[in-house]
Amino acid sequence: MKIIVTPTQPYSDQKPGTSGLRKKVKIFQLAHYLENFVQSLFDTLIVPSDAVLVVGGDGRYHNRQAIQTIISMAAANGFARVLIGQGGILSTPAASHVIRKYKTFGGMVLSASHNQGGIHGDFGIKYNIGNGGPAPEKITDEVFAKSKVIAEYKISDLPQVDIDTIGETQFAGLAAGQTFTVQVIDAVQDYADLMQSLFDFKAIKQLLATGFEMKFDAMHAVTGPYAKEIFVNRLGAASESLMNCEPSEDFGGGHPDPNLTYAEDLVKIMFAGENALDFGAASDGDGDRNMILGQNFFVTPSDSLAVLAANATLVPAYAGGIAGVARSMPTSGAVDRVAAKLNVPSFETPTGWKFFGNLMDAGKVTLCGEESFGTSSSHVREKDGLWAVLFWLNVIAVKQMSVEAILKAHWLEYGRNVYSRHDYESIPTEAANSVIAHIKAQFASLPDQVFGNYTVKLCDDFSYHDPIDGSVSNNQGIRVLFTDGSRIVFRLSGTGTEGATLRIYLEAYEPDSSKHHLDAQVALAEMIQIALQISQLVEKTGRVAPTVIT
Ligand code: G6P
Ligand code: ZN
């Protein structure tokens, strides 16, 4: 094998966001764009001579080409072996598991998650460290710094590698006597085995065999093959229980984001009145998000996390109890109430799964979740869509209650943290920044101001002090906290690729069970108006309604 040192020019925009580097496909296709980023990453890492790299993606457009480039560059940068999911496929949680199971050096996940795919859509690359989780900011910051001054990258003269046939291909390594191996593994098997080891498959199988009707929507994305193996082959579900389970490079032209807006087909089935099924769920492009629906009933991700924490001991893997919980700041405090009752700690981190890694590695938390449809546990270091679906099925199988009944009982016991998120997508960056600046300018004057039934207690820009490594992350979202415990959070998304997305997170605690049936938009109507008043969003952006409400 020969190393080709190729001169290059830096790009100025390779700053990883909330979850890796995400750009339009056409940006990734610019000369040396991917190579620059990969070399900046390899130059940041200290790669030992026996290092193994996992590579897999969600199968979106550009996945295969990118994988060939990464293999060639890994060989030239001293990796001994690359583990690839068959066909270049690995869901994000499966990649995390493979990194952990085979104790590899790290892995690259090629995905833009829930963003649209296809030639006009998005592509992305994220590096995960040896614990299976997203690289922390100290690595991503250094990669960005290196990408701004890069002058050359190293690539090898390897031929195209067959990534569709399970098995090993060996090449002569960099030095005499060394080899470089590309190993293609079954993308599904290890992950399906892991799920079977965590949950009571016997109980779920029985539930599905006794008239309980479910529908899982893979949204034409990566979880299709995983769902077939787990639900149909291992749990005996009817094949009609699955929809959109053939992955495609453009996700069937859709937007693979499991929420009430984009998982429209599933939502129709689950809100079909008397004809609605018992249970519906969907996952996103790379399989780490989940949406849970009951019969004519939507479970907010924040409530989902709280319910799973409260019922964890019903699942074999967590029968001994949980060490603690963590949630991102904008996620509702519902899970905190469960933690308090269980007498375990709860942590509040910034948005981004990477912030949970240290807490899990230190054994401080078992379950984590985010309002952005992410839930998972320490079985991997990513959020895990199918895991959440199986957890719910396990709980339903044991409790023999409907999704709605489980939620109502939960609210009765803990009170309800009424919650909603309003997204304003693709607004001009300047307009979004001016909204944020406008709210910040009121930091001193807002406290003690009265808005209808609400009085502002304090407002700040959230900072996180990592209790494990002492690192500090500032500017993680604006919080307006009210005296009764309600709050409004304003935050700019770190995952979009077009203009800016402004998110408004609304939360109000309702202890009164006679009001628990209220639609969240109705219950939060006054807070929504306060959010618009404080932010002057309509005036500054010209937008009169959110793009997505969850
Ligand atoms: C990704 C990350 C999550 C994060 C979400 C929302 O899915 O993995 O951890 O919560 O993006 O990020 P955003 O910055 O768009 O609100
Ligand atoms: Zn995702």
TrEMBL record:
Signal peptide: none annotated. GO terms for molecular function: metal ion binding; phosphoglucomutase activity. PANTHER family: PHOSPHOGLUCOMUTASE (PTHR22573:SF2), PHOSPHOHEXOMUTASE FAMILY MEMBER (PTHR22573). The keyword Aminoacyl-tRNA synthetase does not apply. Its EC number is 5.4.2.2. The keyword Phosphoprotein applies. GO terms for cellular component: cytosol. Pfam families: PGM1_C_vert_fung, PGM_PMM_I, PGM_PMM_II, PGM_PMM_III. Belongs to the phosphohexose mutase family. This is phosphoglucomutase (alpha-D-glucose-1,6-bisphosphate-dependent). One of its GO terms (biological process) is carbohydrate metabolic process. Keywords: Isomerase, Magnesium, Metal-binding, Phosphoprotein. Residues 14-150, 190-293, 302-414 form the Alpha-D-phosphohexomutase alpha/beta/alpha domain. CDD domains: PGM1. Its cofactor is Mg(2+). It catalyses: alpha-D-glucose 1-phosphate = alpha-D-glucose 6-phosphate. It is an enzyme of class 5 (isomerase).
